[in-house]
Amino acid sequence: MTNKTFVFGHKNPDTDSIVSSIAFSYLRNKLGDTTEACRLGNTNKETDYALKTFNFDAPTLITSVNEGDNVILVDHNEATQSVDNIEKAHVRMVVDHHTMNFKCPETLYYHAEPLGCTATILYKLYKQNDVEVEPNMAGLLLSAIISDTLLFKSPTCTEEDRTIAQKLAEIANVDINTYGLNLLKAGTDLSDYTPEQVINIDSKLFEQNGKKFKIAQVNTADVNDIFKNQAYFEAAIDKEIKNDNLDLYVFAATDILNANSKIITMGTKSNVVEKAFGVSLDHNTATLENVVSRKKQILPNILNNLD
Amino acid sequence: MTNKTFVFGHKNPDTDSIVSSIAFSYLRNKLGDTTEACRLGNTNKETDYALKTFNFDAPTLITSVNEGDNVILVDHNEATQSVDNIEKAHVRMVVDHHTMNFKCPETLYYHAEPLGCTATILYKLYKQNDVEVEPNMAGLLLSAIISDTLLFKSPTCTEEDRTIAQKLAEIANVDINTYGLNLLKAGTDLSDYTPEQVINIDSKLFEQNGKKFKIAQVNTADVNDIFKNQAYFEAAIDKEIKNDNLDLYVFAATDILNANSKIITMGTKSNVVEKAFGVSLDHNTATLENVVSRKKQILPNILNNLD
Prior knowledge:
The structure is a homodimer.
Chain A: E1 5-8, H1 15-30, E2 35-39, H2 45-53, E3 60-61, E4 70-74, E5 90-96, E6 100-104, E7 109-112, H3 118-128, H4 135-149, H5 159-172, H6 176-187, H7 195-199, E8 203-208, E9 211-220, H8 223-227, H9 230-244, E10 248-255, E11 260-266, H10 270-277, E12 285-288, H11 294-305
Parallel strand pairs in A: 1-2, 1-4, 2-3, 4-5, 5-7, 9-10
Antiparallel strand pairs in A: 8-9, 10-11, 11-12
Helix pairs in contact in A: 1-3, 1-4, 2-4, 2-6, 3-4, 4-5, 4-6, 10-11
């Protein structure tokens, strides 16, 4: 029986969740801890591109934890987004950049900052602990910042994200814009995916006052390519709504070149989206101008309008 | 209309709450922020001794905040322990060492560590930001660590609290044991207080599953001196129970020399205390051997046994 601590990001891992598990596990181990980077689901193509470019393996896949397992959460804090059986585990640390919905009967290390990306916080923790950020690790952290901030276009992006991304690009010796567009484009290749798979690439479940909803998001360089299959997406979303008893489902295809999002919205609470963004749904769809961030734009607007 | 941010610790402030509001406000202002150290109640004699020794004024007294006020919480995170109207304020940051019961619709800076004292975390934040800890500030931070750890005797005290206290003592140029005992003894002078006042020197309200309870604690070098007035204390506690609709009240007189606590327990849920500590109450009282910490010993045992 090992005393190893599992470090993981949220379900349906995006690049920041994968990168942060690798980077924080590495830092903890450098400081004398015994941890293993894990992931709660398959990596997406964008993440695969980053891992391949900077020579990292994907973290170990886990789907559940056992009673008393030691865990460290990165890039999330809500139980609904975490590993199965999280309530039985001992949460030792949390490093995150999301809104908090966290209750814990013990005192733990909890570090959250209102930054665009967990990787930005991790860079600061490396500095604070005098642990060197090596070129490949710098490239990995940079990838997470580019991914979470949509190459600095998202309103979640802060000055500190930009400054630290610049430092990381220098250490990794890459051109931010060239590498950044390649990374984002790698993530928009959906040719191998069915609509069921596409909506689950990066989907998060939320709850407020007993109302359950999911917001799924994909990046794309060609919105029309996705919406030509709208009927299939609607069928996939309808199935999710029934299976998970959802009141609302929002699927956002975010245009990385024009910085807006076209959405498909279904569920009994679809009117919440119309109210939240001042739009009228046309065959379940609408275009949200200048909306690229689930965390800072889509989610809070829905929460504020959901009764 | 100023944009100043109010920095404060919990209600019924102890030395750590007062010291942390002063020390974190100073640090934030050094970093270009505009903040003011505040307190939510009167300072106790122990805190007064520390403030006088190291030449600080008590922070500004506030009892409520207005809609949209910017606030920073130190040494607490639960709304029940915070300023009145906290739900209307904008919480920018939290620096704490307690268990978390915090929900916030926005992303904020939240830094908690499982250490004995908020002041220990603050020392690390000064270092991290390259802000010098001057001798008087060092003495103040040291006072908070001595207070919260009962001169390192509490099970909440970690190796890091000890190490940092040592560094602070060197900067402040004081002998830890001599100053520490003087500080703790200053806090045990209850001669000016009525029993009503004594139980409110350091009292915290908790809730679990709709059950409300308070745990009050005072340090003493002479337990018998307190218990000769037991009937008055019981009357004061009874009044609190009725006024606040409490299910349980625990008043702990903690012996700073022998490191144990004699308690008075009242309320319909008094049996929880018997179960929690394996003791039989004798005229509402019991002695809890080796129990000195509300946070690490009294509170979790009650929470675990309260149904």
